[in-house]
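Archive entry. Fields below.
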Amino acid sequence: MSQLPHDQKLDALLASAARVFAARGYHETSMRDLATETGTSLSGLYYYVKSKEELLFLIQDRNFAAVVASLREALEGVTDPVRQLETFIENHLEFFASHMPEMKVLSHEALALTGDFLALVNTRKHEYTRMLMDILARLEETNGPAHANRRVAAYALFGMMNWIYNWYDPLGDLDVRLLSQNMTRLFLGGYVGHPVAASALPHRTAG
Amino acid sequence: MSQLPHDQKLDALLASAARVFAARGYHETSMRDLATETGTSLSGLYYYVKSKEELLFLIQDRNFAAVVASLREALEGVTDPVRQLETFIENHLEFFASHMPEMKVLSHEALALTGDFLALVNTRKHEYTRMLMDILARLEETNGPAHANRRVAAYALFGMMNWIYNWYDPLGDLDVRLLSQNMTRLFLGGYVGHPVAASALPHRTAG
DNA sequence: GTTTCGGCTGAACGACCGTTCGAAATCCAT
DNA sequence: ATGGATTTCGAACGGTCGTTCAGCCGAAAC
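PREDICTED_STRUCTURE:
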């Protein structure tokens, strides 16, 4: 990664940092660790980034923006609330699974940011939560009263999705597609008792 | 907390540490912070604890043991799988809500332990997961085929329950009891399509 | 061939970290 | 009052941390 233009070197640095942060944790990782990992000098890192915290912020902010952008695109033209929810879950999990280190850092290192950095990421989180809750509201209009409080349901869904960084291996037996199907069924069935066609019940999907 | 016997002082120390770890994070908290918090000297802490990591381990291990003990007691005499699952969820959430700092530390600082400490806690986690999956297996026997992979369902449930440290306020509007009901309905409805009596649908439980 | 400049470096700064240790303080049985 | 055990303490240890800064390097511009 020696003679890449400036922006691409920053991208590579962020990717490396995300991997190390995800594996060892943000606070346990030193700038010296990152220098070793990226093959540059310690002080060289500061040419691309103002501080360690900005590094963490860039990882969180860029990836969050990417999730939301991907979601907006995926939702385009989708009007059925059930399909909207499916799309939301699928988009979230597919992005998560294909950006595991970054999304783990985003989910797990929420405490590590401070001040304006924290405020900015939290604003994004609120927007994203709002998007989900709007879908849930429309879902209730078309599919009848919900079986659970909307706010609890929203956070429960985020919980089951974000928790995957503790157990899910994107390269393992369980395909992301199946993971999405499973969680969609779990949530839809519980929230509005959405009927599941018997033919759409491939149990024993994976170990 | 000056003239308490040895064991009770250790308990108080663990409680204080759990609060600070939960609020600031394990690695961001220094032994000097804990000394200030507990009103003792820095070196005085080492009379009660061999190291900072042992402090973290004791918090995690003791509370995990307490959850499991409470669960075993609650499950005594309960034979219906649906009631067993309700009991599991209720026990987990009630203990979580009444030991928020400790359970946040247990859920969030899994990476911070190393070596034997880590292995011991992980063993406990496997046992606990096994207990849930056994209940799910019995549930499928009595209530028909599940709508989702059992392993995915188990981790999804842990996800929605453990995630509450990111948003739930035990002192807020939403009672733990209602939280449990909501999550039980969400999961049961999604996993086995467990019917929910219309009379048991108190929507708009809380904000 | 000299200047310019973005990219990078080694060395050092002060601050803070977890832990140790010998001694001081406190307690309690005698 | 006294002796020994328990509890607490101040001071210091070696080490690591994030960050800074003056200067070096190689290539493009003149």
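CURATOR_NOTE: Residues 197-207 of chain B have pLDDT under 50 and may be disordered.
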